[in-house]
Every structure is written in C-alpha cells, then in structure tokens.
C-alpha cells in the first residue's frame, strides 16, 4: 500500500533496442567462442582440433566480411542504446584486428607451441605423461576468440562500463593464454602471473576512475561526460582524479612508460603466437579505447591532459629506445621496441586541434597500427622458426650468422626490422611519417624531434640484429631453422608482402584510414 | 619518352635478374651486371645528347601522383647539375663493376657474389633517382633508402672492421636523415601548399626564423652526408673498410648527394637563412679543407688517406656552393664530377695494390714503379689530379671555386689555398713512399695491371685529362643551371620593393 503510493503506478520498463546487424561481426566472434566451448565439452579429444580450427578461422573471416560490408554501407551509429559506437574508426579497427587475428591464429595452430597439460607441474612425471600422450589444450581457440571479441568491443565501447567489461573480456583469456607455453614453462607461468596481477591493478584503476567520473558527470556515457564538462562546476577534483585513473588504466594497456614494466616479461614468457596476437591486436584495441576516452569523453579537457601525455610520450620513447639497446633476448628486444613505437604513436594522440587536424592524426594512427601490426606478427612468426633444443632460440647470440645459413629467412626478418626502424620503402616509414606529420601539424614539433632522435637510437638495436645475422660468422652449433608449416609460411609471406606493399603503395590503405577517420568518433 | 624512369627501371630489373642467376654461376652474374650498367650508360648518353642547355631548367620532366594523401608525387626531371651528376654515377658504375670482378670471390668468406653485384645495380637506380627527384619527399625516400644497399656492401664485403664501419655509417646518415625528415614535414606544413614539388616551394617560406630552423634541418643531414667537418668521422672508417668499388661509389657519388642537396634545397628553398649561415658554413669548410689535408698527411693506411683528402675536397665544394657566385657555383658543381673521377681512380688503384700485396698500409710498399710501371704511373696521374695539377680536370674546378670565393670572401679563399699546398704534400709523399726507392721484398713479384684493370683505369684517366683541357662540354651544361639557382637565391635582393615606374611618381603627381 505504502509502496504503491510512493512509486505510483508501475510503469513498464522499455526494452532496449539492439542493432543486431551492426554488431554482427562482434556477435559472430563471441558466438563462435561459445560454440568452441561446447565443442570442448561434447566432442572426443582427437576430433577437437580439427573442429576448433575451422570454426575459429571461418568465424574471424566471416566477421571480417561483415565488417567490410558495414564499411560499404557507411554505418555510423551509437548502437545498443548508445553503448557501442559503430563508426568509421571502430570499423577500421575491427577490420585490422580481425585480419591480424586470422594471421595469428595460423601461428597458434602450429603444434609444439602450447603446453600439453597446463595443470601439470613443470618437470613432473605428469607433464611427461601428458606430453607422451600427445595432450593438447584445444581450449586455446575459444579463448583466443573471446580475447578477439574483447579487443573488438574495447575500442568500440561508447560507455565506460561497457569499456570495462570489454577490457576484462579481452584481458582474462590473455592472462591464461600467456601461461600456456610448452617450453620454459616457469617463465611462462611467471609471465602470466605478472600480467594478471599488474593487469588487475590497472583494471582497478580504470574502474575507480570510472566511478569518480560518474560522480562528476552523473553518467558513464562518453558523450554525456563530454557534455558535463561544460555544465558541471565545482567538482574538479573528482574530474581530475577520475580522468587520471582512467588514463593509468589505459596507458597500462598500451604499455606506455611508466606503466610499461609488464611488457618485456610478458612478451618473453608468453607462447610466441600469443605474443604476436597481443603485440598487434591488443595494442590496436587499447589505442582505439585510449583515443575514444581522451578525444571524446575528455576532449574538452585537452588543455589539462596534453602536457601529461607529452611527458608520457617522451618518457615512453626514451625508455623504450634506451632499454632496448641493453636487451639480449630477441623477444624482450621486440617488447621494448613495441614500447618505443607506443611512444611514437602517442605523439599523434596529443596533436589535437581543429576537426581536420584530428582526422589527420587519427588516420595517421590507424595506418601506423596496421603497418606495425603486420610487421610485428611477421617478426614473431620468424622467431618461432629459429629453434634450439629447448625451444625457441631467444638469445641474440644464437642468431649470429643466420644470414649465411638461411638468407631468405634472415632477409625477411631484416625487412621487418627495417620497417620497425622506419626506413623508406617499408611500411614503417609511412606509418612514422603519418604520425609525425600529424604531430608537426598539431604543433608538437619538439615532441617529433625527440621522436626522431629516439628513432635513431632505436635504429641502432634493429641494425645490431642485422649485423649479427649477416655480418657475423655462424655459431658452430647454431640453432636449427624449423621447416615452417603451411600456416607459418603463409603468415611470414603475408606479413612481408604487407610490409613491402604498404611501403611502396600505401595510398589505398591511407585512403581507407582517411575515410574511416573523416567523421571522427560518433558521440 | 620517360627517360629517367627507364634509367632507373633498367638497373632494378637488372638487379632482379642478377639475383635470380643460379648460385654457382657467379661469372654470369658479373657479366650480366656489366652489360646492364653499360646499357644504362648508353641510355644516359643518348638522353644527355638530347639535353638542351639553353632550354628550360627542368627537362625530361615526369610528374605522377604517388601518395595523394600526403601530397607526394613521383616527380623526376634533370637540370644541368643533376644531369652531370647522374652521368658521373652511370660512368662510375660499369667501371666499378669491372674493378670489383674478383672482390667478392673469396670462397672462405662464403659471401654471395651475385648479391654484391645486384646491390650495385640497386644502388645505381637509387643514385639516379636521388639526383633526378624534384619532389622533396621522393628525394628523401631515395636519400634514406640508398643507405641500405651501401650498408650491406660495406658490412658484408668489407675489411676486418667492416661491421663497425657499416653501423657507424648507417647511424650517422640515419640520424642526419631523420632530422631532415622533421624539416621536410615542417616545410610541408608551414608552406601549406599541399605539395612536395620543389619548384613550387621555392620562395614560399618567408619567415626568417622558420627559414633558419628548416635550413638547419636540411643542412645537418647534408653536412653529415657530404661530410663536412665536424660531421666527418664516419667517412674514413667507412671508406677504409668498404671494398674498393663500394668506396668509389660511396665517396664518389653518394657523398655528392650532400653537396648537391645544399645547392638544390638549402640555397633555393631557404635563401635568407643560407645567407645568414654563410659565414659559419664557409668557416667550417675552410677548417675542413685544412684539417682534412693535415690529417691526410699523417695517415698510414692509404684508403684512410684518400678518405681524408676527400674531406678536404668536400670543404672546397661546400665553400664554392656557399660563396654564391656564378664562378664558385659552377666550379663546385664541376668539382663534384671531377672529384668523383679523381678519387674513383685513386680508390680503385689503391684497391688493385691492396689485392696484390694484401695490405693497405703505405709502409708495406716501396719501389712499386720498378715492378709495375703502369700501375705506378696511373697512380701518379690519379694522385696529381687529386692535388689539382693544371692540365687535369680537377684544376679547372678548384680554380673556379677559388676565384669565385675570392670575389666575395678573400680571407677564407687565401686560407683555403693552403689546402692545395698540403695536397701536394700528402699525395707526393705517399707516392714517394710507395712507388719510389728500393723495391720492398714482398712487392718484387707484383704483377702490373692486367687487361681488365687497364680497361678500368683508362677511361678515368682519359676523362681526367680530357676535361682538363676541354671542360666546356660540362660547363656549358652546368653554367645555366647554376645561374638559375643563384637567381632564385638572390631574387629578393635584386627585386626592388617598389617598381621602377612607380618610383618616379612624387607626392605632387
């Protein structure tokens, strides 16, 4: 009686509208992931791999086709009641992530990369038994699909809560996958543990920041927060603390200094195919989310966050380039190189201004991410092929003289390194040019000067590997070069081709990036 | 006919063909390389015969849009300066190929012979491209990309310290290049014309401060490349460790990109800044002339000695470029060509000596002229061309540079003269120690030049003597281009702010 008096007549809750068609690429990936889980439950062990692999690849390709179709339709909408933004940048990022995921899955499909039984203690009798029985964790495929789905949702979420959910959906499978390396399992488990703990911290920061911003704006909607910036007064401490904490969470995910410490450990310990997926896909997704938060929600606060991101960008470039020089493990070196590239990308994030300037910067970032993604996957694919008795030959000294033993493979790896160094006629050059040009146009000339100085430093350690491979004499008992499986060979070929084509005829992809960036983020 | 694209395409196709030659057949790879480079030479001569010195500045022009989003064009054309430098490159390449016939052969080193020759052809295409590019972005692309084949040529086929030298070479050049990249981007942004075409960017940057910064960005890259003192330290290492043929292309052609860039980009795009920095650049040039010469005297390794003489010569070239008089400009351009032939001959002969004796140290030789008179004689002529003896082509260019500099900067000109005297010391002293006196024990069995080597040296000596007596064919092509360059540099100086007719109108009219 009293309750009805207070609440009045019960009003029907309107059911939310969800544009299933626009979200189809993501739904397909998530759906396939769930089917994958069912396959794990109901099919005999020996059949699983031959079912999982086609499901995974076909769903990713199907999602890519749907994304392309939406791109042609020119979809630009905040779907699902404004929770998920399906706009130009989202579609471009989806396409890039899906392509790179297909390529990474070809690597993941390789035998001999993942542990036979994750629960077995390293070095124990159970482990030997699992290996001799030919055990394999086919859960990897659905886990990868969940991670990829999270990667797609993360940069497209238009609402901080959805973004948090996406962050977790993306990260949790990756934490697990990191610990599943077949060789050097302790290192792998350590990597998973570190990634999980630090990742959990950063998620907590993100969530706390979300809460504070909700306290400030009364909404978690990115567009709503932007509107609140102009109207809400006297709550600046909530705003700044919230924005800062969100920033910490996001900068952690892209691996910007001073939140970069996890990257080398995780990249080194994780199974190399997973490292390839993380180094390409996660970076793209996290950059998309970072841009959406800083440009959409905090777009009018740029006077406050620009100086901070300047400092972060400089620190990231310098830390990445300098620490990479001291590395002796190829995967750690590539991890620090990835940190340096994160710094280069940040130079364009701070270069905001008028709409045309923003579109140019966004297009530059998108192009860079694609160029870098392909070169990275290719480089890690080569890493999987250089093997010692105990697994991959990670130590740089083992790579000496590779150019004389296997000139083609070493030549391709050198191509990827030159692309990382930004030498003209490789994709990396145009990527670097695009972001630096945007940064100069946005008035960040000093940042670009730091960028080129650190690029020169970075060139040193890329070139050092080329020197080792081509100019040093082969080690007497050098590593063996695994005969690549069809999948690995395809990955290396596709990545090398992408690196060259984007370095000579970048125009089609640049056009695509410009079209995607033209109308900026939907609000 | 797209002459310049053909000139670049032929060596690239040739390089692919050479790379596709079966592994055991090194001889075929060499013959193919030589044939391709001779075809390119022939094509260049045909193109040059159609060049009209009194015609428009940019000839054989091709402009195609390459990356519209960045405003980048595939734009190539040549003026007189670019034409003679392209000619220098394509003349040197077949000579270098012939001279390097056995350089990559040592079987114990397990080096791929065909790769070396394929790299030479790739480099040739890029050398043509860098001089022909009229789009600044395209120029930059060639400028950086050509480091890679040279890096592998030094690093894979060079001497004992090759990987150190190769990395030093690459990092120095890359660092300079990246600074230039900032300037290129800034030029595009500040100009706001949406294009990188050099002719359209002349005179666009007006603000003096901006000009100075952009000038510095370009200039440091070119000063590292040239190399100008104090950016020179990579050159002696790189040239001493590179195989002789690669050293010729490196010092003879690649380094000219630096001085060419100063003339073409620094002066024309940023004339006011260039004038502002002239005292500094002239000072550095003069220091380089004297310093290079003195250090050359003290060298014990003949390849390093030749490298240091080049640093001295590059001082003359930059001085000529920045003196900004017609004589000095023409002299500097002519100097670039002659220095290529002269230093090329010296490096190649030094390479022949090193192949025979197995040592690059001057002290290991003595009395060579008794056992190998032709080798010693041609070495002397090449040496004399390096010290600019009248009658050899280098004299003409050095004389023009000095005259042109005196017209404007007398004191630096006088100091630079000492470089000529010191040149006599380092060349003649080296000749004396190596070629005269009692024949050293290890040199006694040294064979004289064989037929292949004579074919290598003869064209260079012929060019040095020929252009020494009759430089007109080169100067006729160079002079109009230099005059046009200087016109665009000095344009603001001579254009009255108020037209002459308007001036007559007094207040009463």
Automatic annotation (TrEMBL), chain A:
Q: Which UniProt keywords apply?
A: Cell membrane, Membrane, NAD, Quinone, Translocase, Transmembrane, Transmembrane helix, Transport
Any idea what job this protein has? NDH-1 shuttles electrons from NADH, via FMN and iron-sulfur (Fe-S) centers, to quinones in the respiratory chain. The immediate electron acceptor for the enzyme in this species is believed to be a menaquinone. Couples the redox reaction to proton translocation (for every two electrons transferred, four hydrogen ions are translocated across the cytoplasmic membrane), and thus conserves the redox energy in a proton gradient.
In the Enzyme Commission scheme, what number(s) does this protein have?
Answer: 7.1.1.-
Pfam family of this protein, just one?
A: Proton_antipo_M
Q: Which NCBIfam families match?
A: NDH_I_N, PRK05777.1-4
Give the matching InterPro entries. NADH-Q_OxRdtase_suN/2 (IPR010096), ND/Mrp_TM (IPR001750)
Task: List residues traversing the bilayer.
Answer: 20-39, 51-69, 89-108, 140-156, 162-183, 195-217, 237-262, 274-295, 307-326, 333-353, 365-386, 407-427, 433-463
| Membrane topology classification | Multi-pass membrane protein
Instruction: Tell me the ranges covered by the NADH:quinone oxidoreductase/Mrp antiporter transmembrane domain, including all copies.
Output: 157-457
Broadest EC class?
A: translocase
Note whether Transport occurs among the keywords.
yes
Q: Is-annotated flag, keyword S-adenosyl-L-methionine?
A: no
- Location in or out of the cell: Cell membrane; Endomembrane system; Membrane
Q: What is its main location?
A: membrane
Catalytic activity as recorded in UniProt: a quinone + NADH + 5 H(+)(in) = a quinol + NAD(+) + 4 H(+)(out)
Q: What is this protein called?
A: NADH-quinone oxidoreductase subunit N
Q: Provide the assembly information.
A: NDH-1 is composed of 14 different subunits. Subunits NuoA, H, J, K, L, M, N constitute the membrane sector of the complex.
Family to which this protein belongs: Belongs to the complex I subunit 2 family.
Q: What is the lineage of its organism?
A: Bacteria, Bacillati, Actinomycetota, Actinomycetes, Streptosporangiales
Automatic annotation (TrEMBL), chain B:
Q: What Enzyme Commission number(s) apply to this enzyme?
A: 1.6.5.9
Asked if the Swiss-Prot or TrEMBL record annotates the protein with the keyword Nuclease, the reply is no
Domain NADH:quinone oxidoreductase/Mrp antiporter transmembrane, which positions?
Answer: 133-419
Keyword Transmembrane helix in the entry? The reply is yes
| Positions of transmembrane segments | 6-22, 34-51, 71-101, 113-131, 137-157, 169-191, 211-231, 238-257, 277-298, 305-326, 332-354, 374-403, 409-431, 451-470
InterPro entries, sorted: NADH_Q_OxRdtase_chainM/4 (IPR010227), NADH_UbQ_OxRdtase (IPR003918), ND/Mrp_TM (IPR001750)
Could you tell me what this protein is called?
NADH-quinone oxidoreductase subunit M
Q: Which organism is it from?
A: Sphaerisporangium corydalis
């Amino acid at each position: 009686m009293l309750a009805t008096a207070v609440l009045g007549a019960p009003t029907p809750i309107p059911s939310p509208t969800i544009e299933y068609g626009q979200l189809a690429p993501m739904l397909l990936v998530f759906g396939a992931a769930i089917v994958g889980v069912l396959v794990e439950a109901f099919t005999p062990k020996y059949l699983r791999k031959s079912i999982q692999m086609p499901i995974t690849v076909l769903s990713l390709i199907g999602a890519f086709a749907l994304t392309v179709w939406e791109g042609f339709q020119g979809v630009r909408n905040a779907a699902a009641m404004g929770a998920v933004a399906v706009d130009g940048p989202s579609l471009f990022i989806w396409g890039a992530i899906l392509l790179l995921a297909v390529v990474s899955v070809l690597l993941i499909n390789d035998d001999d990369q993942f542990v036979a039984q994750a629960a077995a203690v390293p070095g124990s009798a159970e482990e030997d038994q699992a290996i001799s029985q030919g055990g394999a964790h086919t859960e990897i495929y659905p886990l990868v699909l969940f991670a990829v789905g999270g990667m797609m949702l993360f940069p497209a979420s238009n609402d901080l809560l959805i973004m948090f959910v996406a962050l977790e959906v993306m990260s949790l499978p990756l934490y697990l996958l990191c610990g599943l390396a077949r060789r050097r399992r302790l290192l792998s488990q350590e990597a998973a543990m570190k990634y999980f703990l630090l990742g959990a911290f950063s998620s907590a920061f993100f969530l706390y920041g979300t809460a504070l911003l909700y306290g400030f704006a009364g909404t978690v909607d990115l567009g709503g927060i932007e509107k609140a910036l102009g109207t809400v007064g006297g709550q600046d401490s909530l705003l700044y603390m919230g924005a800062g904490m969100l920033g910490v969470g996001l900068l952690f995910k892209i691996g910007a200094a001073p939140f970069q410490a996890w990257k080398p450990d995780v990249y080194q310990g994780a199974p190399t195919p997973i490292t390839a997926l993380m180094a390409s896909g996660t970076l793209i997704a996290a950059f998309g989310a970072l841009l959406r938060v800083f440009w959409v929600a905090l777009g009018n606060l740029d006077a406050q966050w620009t100086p901070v991101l300047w400092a972060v960008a400089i620190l990231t470039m310098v830390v990445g380039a300098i620490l990479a020089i001291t590395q002796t493990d190829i995967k750690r070196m590539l991890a620090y190189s990835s940190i340096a590239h994160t710094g280069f990308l940040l130079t364009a994030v701070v270069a905001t201004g008028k709409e045309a300037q923003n579109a140019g910067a966004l297009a530059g970032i998108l192009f860079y991410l694609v160029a870098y993604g392909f070169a990275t996957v290719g480089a890690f694919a080569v890493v999987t092929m250089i093997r010692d008795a105990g697994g991959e030959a990670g130590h740089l000294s083992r790579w000496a003289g590779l150019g004389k033993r296997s000139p083609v493979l070493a030549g391709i790896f050198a191509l990827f390194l030159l692309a990382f160094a930004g030498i003209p006629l490789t994709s990396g050059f145009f990527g670097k040019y695009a972001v630096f040009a945007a940064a100069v146009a946005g008035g960040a000339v000093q940042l670009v000067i730091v960028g080129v100085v650190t690029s020169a430093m970075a060139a040193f350690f890329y070139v050092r590997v080329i020197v080792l491979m081509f100019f040093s004499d082969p080690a007497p008992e050098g590593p063996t070069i695994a005969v690549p499986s069809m999948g690995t060979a395809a990955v290396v070929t596709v990545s090398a081709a992408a690196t060259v084509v984007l370095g000579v005829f970048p125009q089609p992809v640049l056009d695509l990036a410009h079209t995607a960036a033209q109308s900026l983020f939907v609000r | 006919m797209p002459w310049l694209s053909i000139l670049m395409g032929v060596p690239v196709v040739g390089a692919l063909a050479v790379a596709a030659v079966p592994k055991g057949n090194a001889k075929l790879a060499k013959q193919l390389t030589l044939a391709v480079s001779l075809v390119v030479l022939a094509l260049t001569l045909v193109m040059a015969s159609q060049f009209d010195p009194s015609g428009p500045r940019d000839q054989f022009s091709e402009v195609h849009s390459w990356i519209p989003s960045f405003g980048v064009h595939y734009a190539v054309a040549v003026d007189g300066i670019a034409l003679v430098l392209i000619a220098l490159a394509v003349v040197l390449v077949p000579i270098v190929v012939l001279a390097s016939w056995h350089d990559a052969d040592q079987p114990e080193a397990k080096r791929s012979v065909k790769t070396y020759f394929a790299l030479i052809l790739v480099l040739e295409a890029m050398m043509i491209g860098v001089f022909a590019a009229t789009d600044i972005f395209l120029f930059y692309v060639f400028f950086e990309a050509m480091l890679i084949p040279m890096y592998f040529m030094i690093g894979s086929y060079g001497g004992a310290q090759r990987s150190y030298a190769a990395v030093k070479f690459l990092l120095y050049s890359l660092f300079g290049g990246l600074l230039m990249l900032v300037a290129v981007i800034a030029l595009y942004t500040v100009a706001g014309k949406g294009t990188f075409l050099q002719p359209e960017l002349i005179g666009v940057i007006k603000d003096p401060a901006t000009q100075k910064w952009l000038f510095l960005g370009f200039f440091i890259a070119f000063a590292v490349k040239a190399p100008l003192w104090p950016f020179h330290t990579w050159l002696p290492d790189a040239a001493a460790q590179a195989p002789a043929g690669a050293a010729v292309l490196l010092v003879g052609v690649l380094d000219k990109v630096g001085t060419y860039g100063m003339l073409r980009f620094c002066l024309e795009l940023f004339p006011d800044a260039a004038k502002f920095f002239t005292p500094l650049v002239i000072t550095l040039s003069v220091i380089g002339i004297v310093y290079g010469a003195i250090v050359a005297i003290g060298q014990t390794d003949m390849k390093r000695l030749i490298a240091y003489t080049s640093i001295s010569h590059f001082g003359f070239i930059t001085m000529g470029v920045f003196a900004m008089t017609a004589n000095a400009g023409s002299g500097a351009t002519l100097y670039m060509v002659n220095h290529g032939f002269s230093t090329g001959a010296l490096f190649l002969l030094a390479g022949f000596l090193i192949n025979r004796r197995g040592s690059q140290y001057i002290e290991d030789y003595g009395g060579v002229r008794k056992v190998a008179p032709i080798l010693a004689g041609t070495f002397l002529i090449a040496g004399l061309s390096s010290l600019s003896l009248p009658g050899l082509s280098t004299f003409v260019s050095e004389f023009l540079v000095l005259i042109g500099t005196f017209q404007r900067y007398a004191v630096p000109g006088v100091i630079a003269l000492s470089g000529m005297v010191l040149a006599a010391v380092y060349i003649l002293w080296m000749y004396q120690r190596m070629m005269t006196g009692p024949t050293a024990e290890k040199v006694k069995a040294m064979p004289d030049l064989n037929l292949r080597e004579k074919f290598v040296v003869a064209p260079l000596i012929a060019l040095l003597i020929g252009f020494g007596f009759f430089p007109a064919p080169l100067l006729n092509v160079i002079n109009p281009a230099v005059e046009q360059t200087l016109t665009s540099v000095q344009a603001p100086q001579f254009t009255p702010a108020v037209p002459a007719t308007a001036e007559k109108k007094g207040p009463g009219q």
